[in-house]
C-alpha cells in the first residue's frame, strides 16, 4: 500500500505563514510545524487537526493528503548511503554541508550511477557560481536555468522514464520548489526524486533548512579533515525508509548496530585524544578498532573522481555491504589492517 503524505507544497502556497495561521484557529504551532517538516508522521495526526488545515488551505482532505511512493528504494551502489540513509524513489533528499565538503561530488556521482541505470538526470543550475557545480553539470542529461524549464522538460518525458532532479536551496527559500512539486502533482506526472543541495553552506546553521525531507545526508567536517570520503556522517544521516517496513530486518538491525558502534567509536576518539589509549578498557579498545575498520570500509572510490584519484570507481551491492559490515562488527576482521579497507568496494 502506498504511503500517505501531507501535501506540503499546497499548504506552503495557500498558507505562506502556516504556523501563525494555525495558532489563530486554535492549533498548536509546534504540532503543525512538526507535521509539515515530517517530524510527526501524518498517521499520528488528529483528524480535527487535518480538517482544520484543509479549511485553512481552502482545499479538500483528498487534496491535503496525497499518496507517496510506498518507500521503494533507489539503490546507488554507494554503501554508506544505501545502508544508513537510503534514497526513497519519488522522495526529497537534502544535503547539509559546508562548502568544499564534497556534497556536489556526491550528487554528481549519484547522477553518474543512475544514468547508467536508465534514469533521466536534470540539474537546475544555481544563479550563483559555486565550486563543484561542474561535477553535477557533467553528469546531468539536461541542464536548465529554472524550475519552469525543468518542468517543461520533465512533462515531455511523461511517464516513460524515472527522473532525478537536482536543485539548490534558493528554490526552497523562494518557495519555487513547492510550486514546482504542486504542478507535477496536478499534471499527474510520475513523481520525481529531488535532490536539494546548498553550495553556500548556510543549511548547516538552520534547524530545518529544506522543510520536510525523505532522506537527509549530513556531511562532516571532521571526516573531511582526515580525508575520509564520502564525508557523510553515518550517525546523523537519516531516511524515512528506515522508519517503516521499507527495508528488511537484516538491513534494519545491521544499520542500527553499526550506528551504535560508530557513535561509541567517536566518543572513544575524544577520550583517546584527551587521556591516551592506556585509559581504555580492553572492551573499549576492541570497540575502537572495530570502529576504525568500519569507518575505513565506508569509504568508496567514485567513478567521477577517477581522473584525480587514478582509482577505478566501485559499485557495492547493498546485500554485500550489509554482510561486510556484520563481518567487521562481529570481529571476523579484527586482525585486518584498517588501511586495507580504505577505498575499496566490497570485501573479497
From TrEMBL:
InterPro entries: ATP-synt_VA_C (IPR055190), ATPase_a/bsu_AS (IPR020003), ATPase_alpha/beta_chains (IPR050053), ATPase_F1/V1_b/a_C (IPR024034), Cro/C1-type_HTH (IPR001387), P-loop_NTPase (IPR027417)
Domain (HTH cro/C1-type) ranges: 5-66
Protein name: Uncharacterized protein
Annotated localization: Membrane
The species this protein was found in: Lottiidibacillus patelloidae
Molecular functions (GO terms): ATP binding; proton-transporting ATP synthase activity, rotational mechanism
Domain ATP synthase A/B type C-terminal: 246-308
GO cellular component, one term: proton-transporting ATP synthase complex
Sequence similarity: Belongs to the ATPase alpha/beta chains family.
Membrane among keywords: yes
Transport among keywords: yes
Protein keywords: ATP synthesis, ATP-binding, CF(1), Ion transport, Membrane, Nucleotide-binding, Translocase, Transport
